[in-house]
């Protein structure tokens, strides 16, 4: 069993500010940190910390930010053998986080646009593989990979973040689509449907999960609607919380959990993550998540 993440790796430059700046405004903060990030790297880190054997396929530059981008995955034990080193700057994100934990993010894709489906060997795809993708690498590379994965019997999950067009053929080959409430609204407008899981599933013909932060998550499947409340948490920094949720969910499914149990585990991990600063640095261990689940009963 394994989780294979095909996605982005960034160096996150995090600025702590009393409030988020308005358009054209400069807001002075106390400090900044360079941390590992990128939706792909974050989700790979979360999956590995949740106990899944995890491999990451992506691309970084040969600059000084590459090791920052990879540090979270290295610490979590993610397999980086499929990584490409390219002649482009490593992806980077500028993140402002206010006193309430809300964030504002700008991303420069850099080397993430150089990741290629050919980096994934056929041997890495099979019935025991959970393939997890996001939208920070080229969709043109994801589409043939999804087709190969389905032919090999792998389970395919796409986190539509940030939202963008996906070829209908690729969409129809997904086992699960994960969106947050903002991504759900975008997708609903594109599909001509309501922004809830059941309406989206009806419009798209695939299982859909909609995460709603402190309001929990809902999943629409052939068996009906599943609802998972959020665990109580005090938000310090919500950066990467969605990635924590997705990566932990993939790990749960890889371990043989049904979707309801995997969603509960993901909700617990995300509740821990929002109480800490950073993205990859905030991801909890399997033991920490297990302790919260045990305490919740």
TrEMBL record:
InterPro entries: PfkB_dom, Ribo/fructo_kinase, Ribokinase, Ribokinase-like
Annotated substrate binding sites: 10-12, 38-42, 136, 243
Record's subcellular location: Cytoplasm
Activity-regulation annotation: Activated by a monovalent cation that binds near, but not in, the active site. The most likely occupant of the site in vivo is potassium. Ion binding induces a conformational change that may alter substrate affinity.
Cofactor: Mg(2+)
Binding site for K(+): 237, 239, 273, 276, 278
Main localization category: cytoplasm
Start and end residues of each Carbohydrate kinase PfkB domain: 2-285
A Pfam family the protein falls into: PfkB
Function field: Catalyzes the phosphorylation of ribose at O-5 in a reaction requiring ATP and magnesium. The resulting D-ribose-5-phosphate can then be used either for sythesis of nucleotides, histidine, and tryptophan, or as a component of the pentose phosphate pathway.
Name of the protein: Ribokinase
Source organism of this protein record: Roseomonas marmotae
